[in-house]
């Protein structure tokens, strides 16, 4: 299978639509990590993503009869744009079925490349089901985003270019993983020619379907998939990609939201390119690999797979970057409610910059402050700050890794309720579409009172919502049954220390 895949890569027709992208050195990051860091710039493709390679190569294999009837795909991301452009260049009709929650900027980008867009459903599964109905009705050919040998061969030309452009020492290649088409193609070509080079997959920790499959020895379906890195938000690794690369990938690294955001900043500082979060995923994995292994003096390459990000998301990415670099500590500190307390607190902090300070009077004796403090990367400096505060008899809670604190608490104002009452607090991911909130409220019993509500839009297909509810005693054992019916992802936060300190 390996030799056959390499032959298909060598024969792939991609350069009628795609371009050979450069490998860009990352000098600032290289000095910081004590390794030579290189970035393969797939963000420079005509559709700002590597997806044009696989889409065009798959279409190049179609018969004249198939081309005459047209092609179709269900996609809300880069594959939609790649297929739209490939079809336009070949003069073939293309239909793209997208979920209704797809951001308008992506819908317009697909239409601008000549494809007809059909909006259907609130999730990818519904869009895919409708695409299959249209195939039955019109005879379109479905072009999959990753689970196809010709698509894999097209993506594999990325690996072919890497070895041709960089003939010298190369210790590891870091590849972002969604459905597996890119890493299957890259791993096949690289391992066939230079098996000593490590091929390392990088996944978002809340959509790590390849890691789960390798651990199980077979493909598995994740129960839930995070949507922050929507370009790799896949619940199951593709069948064809997994068959090719299951024995070729050296390891898989998972990274979190903050680490991806920090990698977006790193790419910008070295190249002035603004990567999408899934595009910066591989660099986040490279940095984590260096940190965990302590490697120095190696040549490490990551693939910036795309730059199709919404401008609205940049605020959130910038906000989380300092945390991803471990340059900011988020702390909840209890100080005496009396004059001079803040001055004494700042004296203990020393010359470190206070990046954020949130406070509202709530108690005559104690004040709970939400504070951001600039620290040195690595974690030791953050521990030193906490140690000094505790030695000064300040109770401290470290909220640096607390999602509720970072997504909601730091943006909430207004203080606490004037009197105690029972409240259940949950955090949700809502689809960004008209009627999403009404759908949520419709599923709640009429006698449940909403006591807290905070919503944030990050320029993505999903928004983050924090909801507090007063629930009658008889319903408390069945709360999550109602939420399961709605189908939105949720987390119970009633016992979260950030909530208890600042909102309860």
Automatic annotation (TrEMBL):
<dbReference type="InterPro" id="IPR001926">
    <property type="entry name" value="TrpB-like_PALP"/>
</dbReference>
<dbReference type="InterPro" id="IPR005787">
    <property type="entry name" value="Thr_deHydtase_biosynth"/>
</dbReference>
<dbReference type="InterPro" id="IPR001721">
    <property type="entry name" value="TD_ACT-like"/>
</dbReference>
<dbReference type="GO" id="GO:0006565">
    <property type="term" value="P:L-serine catabolic process"/>
</dbReference>
<dbReference type="InterPro" id="IPR036052">
    <property type="entry name" value="TrpB-like_PALP_sf"/>
</dbReference>
<keyword id="KW-0663">Pyridoxal phosphate</keyword>
<comment type="function">
    <text>Catalyzes the anaerobic formation of alpha-ketobutyrate and ammonia from threonine in a two-step reaction. The first step involved a dehydration of threonine and a production of enamine intermediates (aminocrotonate), which tautomerizes to its imine form (iminobutyrate). Both intermediates are unstable and short-lived. The second step is the nonenzymatic hydrolysis of the enamine/imine intermediates to form 2-ketobutyrate and free ammonia. In the low water environment of the cell, the second step is accelerated by RidA.</text>
</comment>
<dbReference type="GO" id="GO:0030170">
    <property type="term" value="F:pyridoxal phosphate binding"/>
</dbReference>
<comment type="pathway">
    <text>Amino-acid biosynthesis; L-isoleucine biosynthesis; 2-oxobutanoate from L-threonine: step 1/1.</text>
</comment>
<comment type="subunit">
    <text>Homotetramer.</text>
</comment>
<dbReference type="InterPro" id="IPR000634">
    <property type="entry name" value="Ser/Thr_deHydtase_PyrdxlP-BS"/>
</dbReference>
<feature type="domain" description="ACT-like">
    <location>
        <begin position="329"/>
        <end position="401"/>
    </location>
</feature>
<keyword id="KW-0412">Isoleucine biosynthesis</keyword>
<keyword id="KW-0456">Lyase</keyword>
<dbReference type="InterPro" id="IPR050147">
    <property type="entry name" value="Ser/Thr_Dehydratase"/>
</dbReference>
<keyword id="KW-0677">Repeat</keyword>
<keyword id="KW-0100">Branched-chain amino acid biosynthesis</keyword>
<protein>
    <recommendedName>
        <fullName>L-threonine dehydratase</fullName>
        <ecNumber>4.3.1.19</ecNumber>
    </recommendedName>
</protein>
<comment type="similarity">
    <text>Belongs to the serine/threonine dehydratase family.</text>
</comment>
<dbReference type="Pfam" id="PF00585">
    <property type="entry name" value="Thr_dehydrat_C"/>
</dbReference>
<dbReference type="InterPro" id="IPR045865">
    <property type="entry name" value="ACT-like_dom_sf"/>
</dbReference>
<feature type="domain" description="ACT-like">
    <location>
        <begin position="424"/>
        <end position="495"/>
    </location>
</feature>
<dbReference type="Pfam" id="PF00291">
    <property type="entry name" value="PALP"/>
</dbReference>
<keyword id="KW-0028">Amino-acid biosynthesis</keyword>
<dbReference type="GO" id="GO:0003941">
    <property type="term" value="F:L-serine ammonia-lyase activity"/>
</dbReference>
<dbReference type="GO" id="GO:0006567">
    <property type="term" value="P:L-threonine catabolic process"/>
</dbReference>
<dbReference type="GO" id="GO:0004794">
    <property type="term" value="F:threonine deaminase activity"/>
</dbReference>
<dbReference type="InterPro" id="IPR038110">
    <property type="entry name" value="TD_ACT-like_sf"/>
</dbReference>
<dbReference type="GO" id="GO:0009097">
    <property type="term" value="P:isoleucine biosynthetic process"/>
</dbReference>
